[in-house]
UniProtKB/TrEMBL annotation:
Gene3D superfamilies for the chain: Peptidase M41
Protein name, UniProt field: GM18864
Entry keyword Lipid metabolism: no
Xref: InterPro entries: ATP-dep_Zn_Metalloprotease, Peptidase_M41, Peptidase_M41-like
Gene: Dsec\GM18864
Amino acid sequence: MESMIDNEARHVVASAYQTTEGILTTHRDKLEKLAEALLEKETLDYDQVVQLIGPPPYDLGRRQVESVEFEQSLKNLSTDTDATKA
């Protein structure tokens, strides 16, 4: 059973890696533009990123995540990770 779970986990990670590599390869020009801009400015806001590479391919609505919301999501992630280890 453990080896079956390990194999499935390896498959999921390998699949995600291939998908990510494909996306980065397809959009290498955008990745390089972002990298150059980040080397110059260190940080970019949403508008600067859109100006460099265009809007995201999907519309989730632009919104700013509040720090409290971000911290809570990190706590939830930690709790979820701890629960899966048990």
